[in-house]
């Protein structure tokens, strides 16, 4: 999986490698090292911030609970106008604000399940981050041998599909780049912007909500299920100015994919959203965090190749036309 993901990263970022190689007058190794370092910086720094945020939040809650300083502010007056289905949440919030220790004791079973899920998500994210780092390093090695790898790929496709092999290779490259830029790239940008908003507004466990936004954006649900409760929380707790700025920022986050996807995808999505959704979910269930990205790309690529093969007209030559030159001539006409 790490080798495959490394190949996908190499295909998606190969134009950048070519540009730097020209800039450095053909020094492919130097270009490969520079692209690898840039990609590692983009992955490692935000990833570490997310993990650090989660650990810091958990340790802070633990310390406050042990010293009996864990105080949850009561719901504001604006919560009285919230829809009826939010009443259980408001009741729980009120209970926790009156006596936090007693509320934790009363709901210990549910909190244990949440804690187990949180630590599992943190572990999966950490493992996925390490796999990403390994894949980026492997992609850097692929850059150096990109020409021979490309020729080998064409040879394999020609063996499988004959003269259509070259066309299928180009379709594969285009599809991978479109999915990585238009689907995964937009999801990363959207989750990153949401994370900036969470950290700036002081939302508890900002790192965890950022990861959830990333997952929801990749599976094409969007960040709304996380962003809307966060907006409600900030409006209830923070000052009016802070809440207004956060709300505006999160609205930009929610709608930015409508602007970025047409720009990065060009002529529309490479596959129906259901295919991308199933690929991402299936990959996540089978192979964890890295499968979330890998599954979306692989299933979309498979769909695109199948669709291309299925759409091609059948061969016109038949047994009858081969035996009868006159029929063959008419068929050609």
Describe this structure in words.
The chain has 333 residues and is mainly α. It is 82% helix and 0% strand. The protein has helices at 2-23, 28-66, 87-98, 100-106, 108-144, 146-161, 165-201, 206-218, 224-237, 240-255, 257-265, 273-311, 319-323, 325-332. α3 (87-98) crosses α4 (100-106) and α8 (206-218) runs antiparallel to α9 (224-237). The longest helix has 39 residues, at 28-66. It is elongated. The model is unreliable at 316-323 (pLDDT under 50).
TL;DR?
The protein has 14 helices and no strands. It is mainly α.
List strands and helices in order, with pairings.
Elements: H1 2-23, H2 28-66, H3 87-98, H4 100-106, H5 108-144, H6 146-161, H7 165-201, H8 206-218, H9 224-237, H10 240-255, H11 257-265, H12 273-311, H13 319-323, H14 325-332
Helix pairs in contact: 1-2, 1-5, 1-7, 1-12, 2-5, 2-8, 3-4, 6-7, 7-8, 7-10, 7-11, 7-12, 8-9, 9-10
List keywords for this structure.
mainly alpha; 14 helices
Average pLDDT metric: 80
* Residues in β-strands, percent: under 5%
Poorly predicted sequence stretches spanning 5 or more consecutive residues: 316-323
Number of helices: 14
H-E string: HHHHHHHHHHHHHH
Relative helix content: over 70%
First-to-last CA distance:
50 Å
Count the E strands.
0
**Alpha-carbon Rg, integer:** 26 Å
Structural class: mainly alpha
Structural shape: elongated
